[in-house]
Known about the structure:
The structure is a single chain. By secondary structure, this protein is mostly helical. It has one domain (2-77): 434 Repressor (Amino-terminal Domain), CATH 1.10.260. It is built from 6 helices and no strands. α2 crosses α3 (27-34). The longest helix has 10 residues, at 2-11. It starts with a helix and ends in a 12-residue tail after the last helix.
Amino acid sequence: MGQNIKEARLRRNLSADVVAGRAFTSRPTLVRIEKGDSGVGIGIYASVLQALGQLEALANIASIESDKVGQDLIAQSLPPRVRIRKTKA
């Protein structure tokens, strides 16, 4: 993820100082993000993605559509059929 953020910054021809300023963080923190440091808070990642115009990428990280394992588990737990119970009148 860090490498993708760095490449997005470079494609936009933005310096680390500019992106850090727009994200309200320090340049060393941005460098840590670009190196993939897991100790940086998710909120800082969100700020940097926002500064790059890529905030929607954060929503895709745990999206239902990309969770193949979760979809398979749900499909396995679905009953083969559903019965409607008749009530006595």
